[in-house]
From TrEMBL, chain A:
Function: Plays a key role in the late stages of endoplasmic reticulum to Golgi traffic.
Species this chain originates from: Lachancea fermentati (Zygosaccharomyces fermentati)
Protein name as it appears in the record: Trafficking protein particle complex subunit
Subunit annotation: Part of the multisubunit TRAPP (transport protein particle) complex.
Family classification: Belongs to the TRAPP small subunits family. BET3 subfamily.
Localization per record: Endoplasmic reticulum; Golgi apparatus, cis-Golgi network
SUPFAM superfamilies according to UniProt: Ligand-binding domain in the NO signalling and Golgi transport
Taxonomy, superkingdom: Eukaryota
Keywords: Endoplasmic reticulum, ER-Golgi transport, Golgi apparatus, Transport
CDD domains documented for this protein: TRAPPC5_Trs31
Keyword Endoplasmic reticulum on entry: yes
Keyword tRNA-binding: no
Listed GO CC annotations: endoplasmic reticulum; TRAPPI protein complex; TRAPPII protein complex; TRAPPIII protein complex
UniProtKB/TrEMBL annotation, chain B:
Listed Pfam families: Sybindin
Xref: SUPFAM superfamilies: SNARE-like
Record GO biological process: endoplasmic reticulum to Golgi vesicle-mediated transport
Record-given protein name: Trafficking protein particle complex subunit
TrEMBL record, chain C:
GO cellular component: cytoplasm
Protein name stated in the entry: LAFE_0D06018g1_1
Pfam (any one): Sedlin_N
Family annotation (Gene3D superfamilies): 3.30.450.70
InterPro entries: Longin-like_dom_sf, Sedlin
One GO-annotated biological process of the protein: endoplasmic reticulum to Golgi vesicle-mediated transport
Amino acid sequence: MTQKIISPSTSVTQAASTASTGYDYTIGPQQTLPNEQPPPVLASRLYNESLHAKARKAQVSLSAFAFLFQEMISQTRKSSKSVAEIESKLRGLGYPIGIRLLELLNFRSSLTPGSRAFFNKASSMSGSAQGSNGVSTQQEDSLASTITTMKRRDLRVLDILQFIHGTVWQYLFDHVSDDLVKSSERENEYMIIDNLPLLTQFIGNNNVQCDSFVCGIIEGILDSACFPCSVTAHCMPEDKFDRRVVYLIKFDKDVLEREALRF
Amino acid sequence: MAIQTVLIINKSGGLVYQRDFLASSTKLSSNDYLILAGTLQGVTAIASQVTPKALQISGSNLSKAANETEYSIPYAGPLGVKDQKEDMGSFLPPDYFTDSFASWSKSGLKHVTTDQFSLFLYQSMTGMKFVAISTQSSTSNMAVSFAENFLRKAYCLYADFVMKNPFYEPEMPIRCELFDKKLTEFVQHL
Amino acid sequence: MPCYFAIIGSRDNPIYEAEFTSPHLNSFPSELKELNPFILHASLDIIEDLQWQSNPQSGVGTNTSGGFLRSRHSNNNDNCYLSKIDHFYGLAITGYLSYGNMKFVMIHSNSAGNGGTTQIDDPQVRAFYQEVHELYVKALLNPFYKLNDPITSPVFDSKVRSLAKKYLTK
């Protein structure tokens, strides 16, 4: 009597053998052969879950986040030697978030309100999406098929800044930023102003600019949208708002040159 | 009743915060405050030892309805909170808390009264002690619950502006501008 | 019709490639297959030009180098899908740009394989690109994925291939 030995490690390597290499010039693209069996279904939460904003809980506990943020700062403080180093590390933590937000929020705003009904259907199916059922649900699971027109990519400096001022701020801090100003002195400088910074409201330390984290997010968004720039945060109290923060965005020269050429 | 001084004592009896709100004539030196903190810590420990065991046990079953009235502190209204919607930190407006709450210092020192002043003590679950010294001698239950409400709000402020500050080391003296500012504002609006 | 699809990162580095062949018909001739990446990369210049045109599909701005290749049927103002951007001896090349300026590029070959012009079924191709875009956003949301890294997830791969089956190779 032969028994099949179930060993989890080999089953993983078998699954990996069907993996694509992304891009590897030594192998070349893998092609789907005519008589090929459909690939084994791989359960993946990442790819089976909906991207819809309503698909997950939209709120995060402020206290929980404040403690996480506090720990992030403590960690960077322990591993850095100077204030500038702390700030640049915080910036580095924000940067990948910005890259992701640019894609995700733009994709979400391409959705029409009508796709809400679709979402309800998808969520009822997601329970059965595990296991062998995955492929059949996957095709209905995509939000892209409900999109008629994608939101336009932002090509001008003002468009992308409006996106940050509105959509991004609304998503991150639940209010639009308080002002978006163009510098009167220099062509390439813009300012986004937040009267009540959410993340640093418990931190009363002016030596280290903890809002650098948000600078990193803004930089990530602008950089991956091809608007290379540097962002700095400045604390500028104004009568009622003593924690008012100004994010100063300095675009590189070539952004303005391109704008002058194209538009 | 005016709040003269607020002290915060950590769980090992060290004074981590001291602030005067009245320019009173009798100013204690910082050394005296340290001694006061140590003494209060010791007295609290002794007091909790001399609390009758029966009282401690009945106090630990707070869920029982019979004891609830005895140990829960009524909510004393929105004292100290301005009618502003924002700036409540991680607490939801209109107030830091709106319910009556169970006192955590069931055993130990709660209240000291002399002719000159009264001293109120609120102990947190982790052994932090919040002390308020008022300029009146008051013995009424009202005053005690009022003080306990006040100190609990100070504890809320501590939770927000001290514990969530990455530059604060636990158990060390508190030097947080925002906490200072919020506490001053809070006492002024009392 | 066989297709060669690649995602090109923001530093013009390929991060994913795949070849789709129809179940009943031919694939790329082997000598051409080797050339696919080159053909595809040759069209990146045109994409880069279209990237900054406000209406890449409308055929406005014919003074620029990519302009004369525009297909002029389009009437919507979507600037993610670039439609047909280039051709190479009967092969047609379509492009799509994500919001983070990832370039999704594909070479379409006509089913006959005789070098005749290839017709692009725009709505289908657009739908394919949008779906892949969604998958790409999901891949990007993976905290362990870094921008411009090759996408090696087998799930991503199998999903892209089943999308290709659905929209492209009929």
